[in-house]
Write a structure and sequence with these properties.
20 helices; Rossmann fold; 3 domains; six-stranded parallel β-sheet; alpha/beta; single chain; about 575 residues
Amino acid sequence: MIQATGAQIIVKLLENQGVKTAAGIPGGSILPLYDELLKSSIEHILVRQEQAGGFFAQGMARTKGETAVCFATSGPGVMNLLTAIADARVDSIPLVAITGQVNSHLLGTDAFQEADTFGLSFPITKHSIFIHSPEELLSAIPLAFEIAASGRPGPVLIDIPRDVQTKQAFFEQWPLPGRKVKKAVRFRTEGDVLVKKIEQAVDIISQAQRPVFYLGGGCNSPEASRGVLSFLEYLPLPVVTSLMGLGAIPSAHPCFTGMVGMHGSRAANKAMYESDVVIACGVRFDDRATGLTKQFCPEARIIHIDIDAAEVNKILSSTIGIIGDVESVIPLLGGVCSERKIVLSETAAGWIKELKNTESGYPEDIAAAKIISSLPLMAEKAGYKAEDLIIVTDVGQHQMWTAQYYPFAYPRQFLTSGSLGTMGFGLPTAIGAAFANPGKRVVCITGDGSIQMNIQELATLAELNLDVTVLLFDNEVLGMVRQQQEMLFNKAYSASIFKRPPDLVSVAQAYGIISGDFEENSENILFPKSHKGPRFVRICINRDDNVYPFVPAGKKNIDSITK
């Protein structure tokens, strides 16, 4: 018979899951767990705000594709964490968040630091669990890891009252770790139905005159990327991506046509609008990508491959819907195309050439864009390779310039808050990515609005001495807000201009980070030849620089505004 407290059970099961690192902040309702952590093999990262703990975990999960763990105490602690949890949910990031709760007998009494964590988290997690007894932990924790990683990944929250953490439990044996099921776990297309749908999809592709591959976040893994690249070797279709799909194939690949959407390239938006067949893989057809939905690919037959059955036919109707992971389905599709010797028609080949000759619509005179596009060359001069760099952004103009201009080379190289668009995402996510990827240089591209959302994490960065370069574009405004006010609200700049902006270089120096302003030939500031330690580099830019192309609400993507 095994005897252990709830806190001991939590720590032991986390170790059994292979967890080596977790981020968070202690507080009264989770102190029993923290007491056991001190005795464990798990390294705890003390962030300065709970939201940052969630984003630190995201940095690890997004780069490794593995479930990461974060902690928070009850009340304000968990409420700070919820933004990072919601962000993980909509971008399909596997996390397990363990939160402390007030003692069971105090629930519902408005006790000190009490909040309904289960109720608050339920709509924004993949799954939430409230624990009533320490014995429940034996099944709940393995289940949480299984749910977080299986099918379409996402965050799972486990809320545990303080008295449950201290209470003793008696049980026969430790449970096995939770499984990771990569394939769709519900409603998946398989067997004879899958064979038939693959054949039907190949029939459609064989007839296409203007086919397009549309890749989303579900393709942004090494396994999925290999499958897509292998398919393109046989059938070189034009490829467009969503924001989350950037990096699924290299930007330099001859089939890559660009990112679609509000700030997408004219070539990519033209490709979707004129297409007659769209192979949509791991994408949701979200509003920022589609613009006016009915005019996104109005004449196309859609072959939609997605691990989540709820996404197929949700926004646009599919001619063929296949529920499955891209890693498994695309090789099957490519294999049948090869067996049947499917080739592009002369019309399709000519159309693809036309797309490649279409201008991107990206301005050439944007200072930030010139610097972002030259980052790999500057890194190379300092002795880095393309695969040594991970690019993280916050949310705003700098995010879109990065998406437009940076030449991404491999999957999971680009980390950004896609669907939720969370300012403050960049710095803590970059710290988590650097921690999980020693030997790589993480570049956090941010703005003076976003960096101040979680600027306190410069303390965490300095403390850990990680290889992160914070590249700050400073224009003393909320750039994307100001741009939309200029274009859509007759230049009525309401609450978008900072009246007394701080000296952010001095702020970074106060945290003990080597900092300075960007100058020509300053690659050694951005990319120290020692490859070691954090850097903070400010670049002052013109507040009137806008992101183009820009598609106003209610317009077709091909009706974008260009400079």
